[in-house]
Amino acid sequence: MTGASGTAGYAAEAEALVSRYESIAFSDIHAAILPLLPAPPGHVLDIGAGTGRDAAGFAALGYRVTAVEPTAELRQRAVALHPSPLIDWLDDGLPDLPALAGRAAAYDVVMLTAVWMHLDAAERCRAMSRLAALLRPGGVAALSLRHGPVPPGRRMFDVSAAETIALAEVHGLRCLLCRTDEDAQLRRPGVTWDRVAFVKDGVGKGIPELHTPGTIA
């Protein structure tokens, strides 16, 4: 996918990544996020969908899913692993998601699992504006930020939760959840995750903000 940022290193490791990512249960990795989401049926935009584990998990719950993955080697394996009429696979990527241009859809949920830290500061500004525009009022966006050693060949930035929350607020997204977790499932030394969720401004004001430690990877 021309124009997608942060994909370096993924194509060469596709086979190993399938085994690694598929070994982690969807319900475990998103245990903190799932209770905050609008109930199915609804439309999920899964950006950086990788091996399709999360897209399949949402489809199994009854959501329609647009699964965006710019790395062909991962996307092809995902389609074969998780065939579902509820999943629409798309070759696209951040910061601009050009393949989504012209689609009228507004999404109930936008997911970015282990994606945001691949974007530099300018790309994050562009991407947040795009995400806010794609999310319907009352919809929830959730992302995870990796901290720790950068794998060889990858492009990553150490992006703080505080910076991400502030940028989201500029675009009308209010923080619902911010927590730091250990790398519990894969147990990589020195790796931790910030998990952050937002609601589009104007709906859901009765939901408290949560800032808690946790252990879900």
Describe the protein in words.
By secondary structure, this protein is an alpha/beta fold. Helices cover 26% and strands 25% of the residues. It has an eight-stranded mixed beta sheet, with helices on both faces. Helix 5 links the parallel strand 4 and strand 5. The longest helix has 14 residues. It is globular, with a radius of gyration of 16 Å. The two termini are 28 Å apart.
What integer value in Å does the Rg equal? 16 Å
Largest sheet geometry: 8 strands, mixed
Tell me the number of helical segments per DSSP (H or I, 4 or more residues long). Answer: 6
Task: State the total count of DSSP E strands.
Answer: 8
| Succession of helices and strands | HHEHEHEEHEHEEE
Unreliable runs, pLDDT <50, ≥5 residues? 203-217
Fraction in helix: 25-40%
Q: Give the overall silhouette.
A: globular
Class by alpha and beta content: alpha/beta
Oligomer: single chain
Strand content: 15-25%
Strand order of the largest sheet: 3-2-1-4-5-7-6-8
User: What is the CA-CA span between the terminal residues?
Assistant: 28 Å
Residue-averaged pLDDT: 87
